Amino acid sequence: MSADPKNPLIVQSDKTLLLDIHAEQAEAARSAIMPFAELEKSPEHIHTYRITPLSLWNAASAGLSAEHIVNALETWTRYPIPQGVARGFSDTMERYGKIRLIAAGGAASDSELLLVSDDAAIKAEIAASKNLGKYLTQTEEGFSLRLVDRGSVKRELIKLGWPLKDEAPLRDGEPLAVRLRSATLSGAVFTVRDYQKEAVRAVLGDGAPGSGYGVVALPCGAGKTIAGIQLMAELNTNTLILTANTAAVHQWIAELLDKTELTNDQIAEYTSDSKRTAPVTVATYQILTWRADKNADFPHFILFRARAWGLIIYDEAHLLPAPVFRVTAELQAVRRLGLTATLVREDHEEDAVFSLVGPKRYDMPWKDLEAKGWIAEALCMEIRVKLPKELKIPYAVASTREKYRIASENPLKETIVRQLVELHAEERILVIGQYVQQLEGIARLLKAPGVTGKTPAAERERVYAAFRSGEVKIIVVSKVANFAIDLPDASMLIQVSGSFGSRQEEAQRLGRILRPKKRNSLFYTLVSRYTVEEEFAANRQKFLAEQGYKYSIQQWE
After folding, report:
1. Other C-beta atoms lying within 10 Å of the C-beta of residue 205
2. What pLDDT score does 1 carry?
3. Tens digit of pLDDT for each residue in 439-451?
4. On the CB side of 553, how many CA atoms lie within 13 Å of its CA?
5. Using an 8 Å Cβ cutoff, are 203 and 231 in contact?
6. What DSSP state is assigned to residue 218?
7. 204 vs 317 pLDDT, higher one
């Protein structure tokens, strides 16, 4: 299908790809380019993808070749591919692996590693780098470095455009038998799905140097936790699990007890409420990054050295806080798994996740899992509502940040929320937003329980439990519910406001309603018309388009 005018893809010399979403084969073309291209724009008719160095390095680390990428483009391109584009792919991808990290002396060393390259120009560039000079000592074979500087060197090299191939040995942790149950505690049959096993195999590789670490991208509701548990069962070692909040800690512990033969005394919670360690310890990013003031040390970093960990799982890896980068840089000898629904980071530190946790090893498209029935089909709709007359002048003279807040807290949204709830009385509904005062007003209007950052952890758990049991059918939640909240029966979400243009937030919120169910899930976003909120909503919707979801826009009068 080379250079066929009916094809959906236009390849441009600046490495952007234009996808005509109305073309017959648009969906197949989108699936073909996703492993090596990142979505940038998604208006109504043409979506723009860009091939970046990081997207190509991820493709290279997953075993894709420049030839594979060119073949995919030639299969779906509408016009001849511009000269030089294919050569650029090869040049960029070949950078991955030009520099290798190995054990000093060719065997495991207790203190040193060796950075090697066959390219004299690359070695000269490394030697000339002041930032790398802090960590490296030039030797006859290459550059020696301390074990604890392994991650820091990776980060500096990727900033120079050289993604390091880490072939140094990984350290085995303290052994721990992790056996999976054949049935859960409730008696339901438990099996690990094929794609979850594939994800674990992709991370483990063949067990040779250069394997045993990386990121798995799976949709919310697709069982990322089970993939993590499967890896634990493969490695049978002490495991540290880091996640987004205390509710997620409790869910991990519940899943471990339900799906494995681990006992209560083998699993510990390390949070603001409890600071115990065990062979399997589950902690929050928040507790790790707490310190008395901005100049103080991080006292809870000792958790990383509290035991002989053989595996560290970074749940919601796209949220990995920058302060944790420092410690993660020292933990490169430990097997590492990053779990995420999207690798988008609002601070654009995706390369840090690549270098410190590992490259993306496995990515299952959301729509593929939907087609197989593993996650629910979602119908996405944006409802645009006018700004009340009395708010137009205050909006006009406000700062950009205040404009966003005025648009987000548009009081007419409460009317729409009430109408949507009445229209979908049979659904299990989450109303989610950014601003506490707005959410408290909606909770009163709907006579529904609310959960915000001010809600004590025990009360949050009680509300979530009431929703799971069916005691309540509507809950109003702030962004504390974005991450790792297990509400499997939620079938409809009304988003009244969001964190500016956060695509990662859109991913997490959509994921709240994607557990498999008998009918379609409904995802509504309320946006104030002719305001900055429209611009931010467009950025969030890039995520929906990237995953193959179509969304409709309706005006509310």
Report:
1. 15
2. 45
3. 999 999 999 999 9
4. 11
5. yes
6. -
7. 204
- Largest separation between any pair of C-alpha atoms in the chain: 75
Q: Is the pLDDT of residue 244 over 90?
A: no
**What 8-state DSSP symbol labels residue 10?**
E
**Alpha helices per DSSP H over 144-235:** 150-159, 194-204, 224-235
For the chain, domain boundaries: 9-94, 99-166, 194-364, 371-556
Helices and strands, counts by H and E, the chain: 21, 23
Interval 346-377: pLDDT, tens? 566 777 788 788 888 887 777 778 778 887 77
Q: What is the pLDDT of residue 503?
A: 56
Question: CB under 8 Å to 31, separation ≥6 — which residues?
Answer: 365, 367, 368, 548
The tokens for 491 are 């079938």
CA neighbor of 105 nearest in space, from 138, 144, 135: 144
How many residues belong to the chain? Answer: 557
**Residue 87 in tokens:** 């050569």
537 vs 518: CA distance, rounded Å: 29
Q: What is the pLDDT of residue 2?
A: 61
Beta bridge partners of 332: none
Predicted pLDDT at 17: 94
Contacts of 124 (CB under 8 A, 6+ apart): none
How far is it, in rounded angstroms, from Cα 35 to Cα 519? 30
| CATH code for the domain defined by 194-364 | 3.40.50.300
The two three-digit tokens of residue 221, written as one number: 């509701």
Residue with tokens 């800690």: 249
CATH number assigned to the domain with residue range 371-556, chosen from the 4 options 2.60.40.10, 3.30.420.10, 3.40.50.300, 3.40.50.720: 3.40.50.300
Report the distance separating Cα 25 and Cα 6, nearest Å: 9
Classified as helix, coil or strand, 296 is: coil
With b for 16 or more beta-carbon neighbours within 10 A and e for fewer, the 454-477 pattern comes to ebeeeebeebbeebeeeebbbbbb
Q: Are strands 112-117 and 143-146 parallel, antiparallel or unpaired?
A: antiparallel
Q: How far does CA 226 lie from the centroid of its chain? A: 16
**How confident is the model at residue 485, as a pLDDT?**
61
pLDDT in tens, 415-472: 999 999 999 999 999 999 989 999 999 999 999 999 988 888 888 889 988 988 889 9
Say yes or no: do domains 194-364 and 371-556 share a fold.
Answer: yes
Cβ–Cβ < 8 Å for 239, 312: yes
Q: In this predicted model, what pLDDT tens digit does every residue of 265-275 receive, in sequence order?
A: 999 999 878 88
Distance of CA 272 to the CA centre of its chain: 24
Helices in 482-531 by DSSP H: which ranges? 503-511
